[in-house]
């Protein structure tokens, strides 16, 4: 798409989308996916128990959710670019703190700081940036930009493991923190801009304003009025349940597969999940062609099928299919969350509305990984916990489908300038 009036120049929003993708690469690759790397590194170096170290992972999800409440309000009060600048600094500080850990509580502190930084550099903030630049192609651009997340895992997890093995935890943390800051901070400072108006453009680079859609874009909601609507409740229920299912499967995937296929082959299945996640990004544009709530419902059903299949079989070929189904859907179920909130509630109050939903979503993820681990220990297998979480993914699909069938009540206040 071209810049209005300057056909030789691409719409600047595509440069912003590139910056969002690079940020996702770092946020997930150097932040989120490093949790497991450091858990095993601290276990090997200090002998700390995996159970105790894993509590930090649960803390991470809880802090991300709590930080999202603050982050959402800051996005609306100031702008997502300022939040991203702060988030990049905090994310790098979290990585750096791992290198200073000499006691278990130091690891928990690093987990908490990293979580706050992740909240300021991931879905909530990146969705706000994309939403302010795109409307018609939000689902496609958001899904495309979040492709940086699995790419970050594929590139940075092996790199950080190599650094830790070669230089030790402390020096590796210095290198990783410096690299993260060197990439994200310049993007936030010099590439990301608040919205198209800063360059005299409209959403999608259109020459004309979006017409009656501006009423939705400029709608004003507070957290309480949004949470009172059936739309918000159904969407949030869907988000929380699908993340409960998804995170539980991903965190426990190796532990689930190792007794069945062996530890060596289990890593192959994880790679299949990651590769399918990248392939699934190519289906992201469907969210712009079909109703987004129905697309989310379809992805939830596909993920439910994958997890339920994993619960019912020990056949390696079928387990590969299950791993691919979960991987194919995981990126799109995340990317559609900010897009759906923006579509139904507008961008004016996006952070205020989506922040509390993110809190409950992260809480669902934390509950899921803990619940599945507990039930697996009690029953001696992952069949029962995966059957339960797969069933909850079906409920998530139903909630997503129903969210598009109800109107927003009470109606939001519309600014006089809208």
In the CATH hierarchy, the third-tier topology of the largest domain is known as Growth Hormone, Chain: A
Q: Which shape, going by the Cα principal axes?
A: globular
Q: What is the helical fraction, as a range of percent?
A: over 70%
Per CATH, the architecture of the largest domain is: Up-down Bundle
Beta-strand share of residues: under 5%
CATH class of the largest domain: Mainly Alpha
Strand order of the largest sheet: 1-2
What is the N-to-C succession of helices and strands?
EEHHHHHHHHHHHHHHHHHH
Quick tags:
418 residues; mainly alpha; Growth Hormone, Chain: A; globular
Produce the secondary structure layout.
Elements: E1 2-3, E2 6-10, H1 13-32, H2 34-46, H3 50-77, H4 80-98, H5 104-119, H6 123-133, H7 138-145, H8 148-167, H9 169-191, H10 213-217, H11 223-227, H12 230-261, H13 263-280, H14 286-289, H15 292-312, H16 316-345, H17 350-379, H18 383-403
Antiparallel strand pairs: 1-2
Helix pairs in contact: 1-5, 1-6, 1-7, 1-8, 1-9, 2-3, 3-4, 3-5, 3-17, 4-5, 4-6, 4-9, 6-16, 7-16, 8-9, 12-13, 12-15, 12-16, 12-17, 12-18, 13-16, 15-16, 15-18, 17-18
């Amino acid at each position: 798409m071209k810049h209005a009036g300057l056909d030789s120049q691409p719409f600047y929003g595509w440069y912003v989308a590139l910056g969002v993708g690079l940020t996702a690469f770092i946020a997930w690759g150097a932040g989120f996916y490093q949790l497991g790397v450091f858990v095993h590194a601290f276990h090997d170096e200090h002998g700390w128990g995996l159970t105790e170290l894993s509590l930090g992972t649960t803390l991470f999800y809880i802090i991300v959710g709590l930080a999202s409440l603050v982050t959402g309000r800051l996005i609306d009060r100031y702008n997502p670019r300022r939040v991203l600048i702060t988030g990049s600094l905090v994310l790098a500080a979290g990585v750096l703190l791992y290198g200073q850990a000499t006691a278990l509580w130091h690891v928990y502190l690093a987990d908490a700081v990293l979580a706050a930084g992740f909240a300021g550099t991931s879905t909530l903030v990146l969705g706000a940036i994309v939403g302010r630049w795109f409307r018609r192609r939000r689902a496609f651009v958001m899904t495309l930009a979040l492709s940086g997340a699995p790419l970050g895992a594929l590139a940075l997890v092996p790199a950080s493991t190599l650094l830790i093995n070669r230089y030790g935890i402390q020096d590796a943390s210095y290198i990783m923190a410096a690299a993260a800051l060197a990439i994200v901070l310049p993007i936030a400072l010099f590439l990301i801009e608040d919205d198209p108006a800063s360059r005299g453009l409209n959403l999608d680079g259109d020459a004309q304003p979006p017409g009656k859609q501006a009423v939705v874009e400029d709608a004003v909601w507070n957290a309480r009025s949004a949470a009172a609507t059936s739309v918000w409740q159904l969407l949030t229920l869907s988000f929380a349940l699908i993340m409960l299912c998804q995170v539980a499967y991903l965190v426990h995937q190796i532990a689930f597969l190792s007794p069945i296929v062996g530890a060596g082959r289990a890593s192959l299945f994880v790679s299949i999940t990651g590769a399918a996640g990248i392939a699934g990004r190519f289906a992201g544009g469907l969210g712009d062609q079909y109703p987004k709530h129905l697309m989310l419902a379809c992805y939830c059903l596909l993920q439910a099928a994958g997890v339920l299949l994993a619960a019912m079989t020990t056949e390696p070929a079928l387990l590969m299919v299950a791993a691919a189904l979960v991987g194919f859907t995981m990126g799109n179920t995340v990317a559609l969350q900010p897009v759906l909130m923006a579509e139904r509630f507008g961008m004016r109050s996006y952070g205020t509305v989506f922040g509390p939903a993110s809190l409950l979503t992260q809480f669902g993820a934390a509950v899921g990984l803990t619940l599945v681990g507990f039930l697996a220990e009690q029953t001696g297998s992952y069949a029962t916990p995966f059957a339960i979480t797969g069933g909850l993914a079906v409920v998530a699909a139903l909630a997503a489908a129903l969210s598009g069938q109800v109107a927003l009540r009470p109606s939001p206040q519309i600014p006089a300038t809208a």
